[in-house]
Amino acid sequence: MAEADIAYVATAGAAGLAMAVSAWALLLRGRLNETAIQAERERVEALADLSRHDAMLRAFDDVSLALTPAGEAAGAPIGSAELIARLAGDSDEVGAAVLAKLKITHDALIEALVQSGQAFEGLVALDDVEPWRIEGRVAGGSAWLRLSPASRFTLTGADATESGLAMLGDASPMPTWVVDGTGKLAWANRAWLAEINAETIEAAIEEGLSFDRGADALVAEAARLGVRQEGFRWTTGGGARRAWRIIAEPAGGGAVTAFAIEVTEAEETRDTLRRHVEAHDETLNHLADAVAIFGPQKRLAFHNTAFQTLFDIDAAWLDERPTHAELLDRLRQRRSLPEVVDYAGWKARELEFYGASEASPDDSWSLPDGRTLRVVRQPHPLGGILLIFSDITDELKLRSRFNAQIQVQRATLDKLNDAVAVFGSDGRLRLHNEAFETFWNLSVDRIAAASDFDALAELCKAVLPDPALWLGLKARVADPDPESRVAISGEGRTVDGRVAAWQTRPLPDGATLVAFSDVTARRGLEQALVQREQALAESQALKREFVGSVSYELRTPLTTIVGYSELLETMGDLPERSRQHAGAIRIAASQLARSIDDVLDMAQIDAGEMELSLGDMRVSDLLNQAAEKVRARVEGRGATLTVSCPADLKPIRADEHRIGQALDHLLENAARAVSEGGAVELKAETGPSEIRLTVSDTGRGIPYHLQAHVFDRFVRRERGGPGVGLALVKALVELHGGWAEVESEPGKGAAFILHLPLGAATTAAAPELQLEL
What we know:
This is histidine kinase. Its EC number is 2.7.13.3. The chain is α+β, with helices and mostly antiparallel strands. Strands 2-1-5-4-3 form a 5-stranded antiparallel sheet. Strands 7-6-10-9-8 form a 5-stranded antiparallel sheet, sandwiched between helices. The chain is rod-shaped and about 255 Å long. The model is unreliable at 153-166, 717-722 and 768-773 (pLDDT under 50).
């Protein structure tokens, strides 16, 4: 190609390039202008947004604080000027001052927010007004803290609940405090500070004060589990012991809000109620009646020992708290319930008492084993019912016997001839018999119309007008003084001439029995008996005087007869037959004189005038002397006489003459009764406190029908005698304090036994010194 062409082409290319560059530059300038305009527009919008955001941050009651990567305050806080002033106070470095307050309790949480972006929220105490809510978040590569007064922060749902707990503030009378996520105290109200005796929160934190260690443990548990915890604690302060209910409520971010509700009064009331219930249960447990208490769920809540004993139920089964229906079924199995046709209906009616508002009327159960139970059902104050079972079997029996006895007493009183009336302590007539109506000539209606003792006395004064009598009876009836309630008696004369005897008797129940009787005939009879007794005494005295006089009158001629007969026996020229006649006369006269002496002795004993002469009596000597007196007569009849006496028998205290007189009579009777070939024995035996003297013979004996009267005086006996000898024997032995008996079998002889004490002690003995034996 030519150089011109090359130049042309080069020039054209350069021109084209220049035109293209110009066009591109124009296009680029346009785009740049558009970009600048858009950037300016965006800047203006950003400034407007920033202004709106800044206004928005300052329009709400909160404060935001940005943090640097080093954890320092990135400038001043953003927010309400009023709140920033409350937080910073007079400090120039507002952000640093606020952050310094936060780090006192939330240093670890702020550090975790800056280093790892771990968000948190909770409550913190920054002034003395109220707690602040703190939130930590990461936004735009920076860490932010947001603070707001708890009372001005409102949320919904769970957050609103958590904030509401913090809003209690110082106005709450309950001690309330907030613990942050590190377990340190973040805020507390005035009640909490007053309870631990701290002026400020800072002072409490500095001194490490705490409400209670147990409460702290409960708060820590709530923070760890994130679940509400409740507990009960007793604290002592101000000289008093108080009970608290502790509630620890998680507030988010590891913070916990705790409340202490004082329940001292409730606990004391509960403790008092518990002791009262225990005392009540203990009291019921000592009752003889069976008691069972069923709760609102119809389960056995309590039973006393008597209940378990009454129905003989296993105590372990009762401790399992069976239902009322189960208990009824168990009792039915043991046949401890009344036998009914429709048990299901009866059981349903028993369980209907749970809906009753008042106690039901007493019921009675007749059990198959014969027992009768009284059942009381009443609503329990704590819900359910209370059942009381009383075994009234014996009570019913006693009541039946009592009613029968009352009827018998009434019938008995009506059959009495005495007029009987019973007055109560109030002076009213309780009971009277038919004889009372007859004695006072009063009808039943008039007696019933008398309201009290005075009214009845006015009716009775028409028959017995003695004011002193009725005044005295009223004192015994109505006066409660024990000195007045004594038994008295007396007599009076009625207007118709009868003699009325009256007497009072206080009764155990406070009543008084008054009895009136017509003793006119009795008094007449007593007077006649007195007169007869006087006449009898005079006749007895006359008899004794007559017997004594006759006896003494007979002694003189008898003495003469005995003397002359003895003289005739000694005369040598008297024929033998005449001498025998004189001897017979002497013997008969002597027997007659002895009989007279016996009669005199009996009369003296009857008059109580015989006096014993006690002394030391040797029994063996007395027996030998008595035996020698009748030995000739016994042996003369062809019989034998033996004396048996222990050799070591000691003397006894007795009247030797009178005992000898008794033995003489017994030996003479034996000598008359014994026949040829027979035997008479005089024997002495000793006992622990007596000596027995026995006179026995082998004669004809004594018929059985006469043995009971053998010692009676002046009774004719087949054994002969004047009828006073054996009676005198008995009387003489009894004067010594002993007694006499007879043992006999007809045809085989008889034995008379005298029981004498070792030492006679009788009023018939003359006073003397005790002699040594």
